Amino acid sequence: MNNYFRMTKLSIVKNTIILGVMVFLVAPSMAQKNSWKKGILVDEFIYESAPFPEAHASTIAETPEGLIAAWFGGTKEGHKDVCIWTSHLKKGKWTTPAMAADGVLSDSVRYACYNPVLYQVPNGELLLFYKIGPNVAGWTGWLKRSKDNGHTWSEREAIPQGYLGPIKNKPELINGVLICPSSTEKNGWKVHFEYTGDWGKTWTKSEPINDGIEYSAIQPSILKYRDGDLQVIGRTRNTVIFQSWSKDNGKTWSEMSALDLPNNNSGTDAVALKDGRQLLVYNHVLPDSTWVRGKGPRTPLNVSLSKEGKKWYAALVLEDSPISQYSYPSVIQSKDGMVHIVYTWRRQKIKYVKIDPSKLKLTAIKNSKWPGALKVKKGVVTDD
Question: Does the predicted TM-score (pTM) go above 0.85?
Answer without folding.
Answer: yes
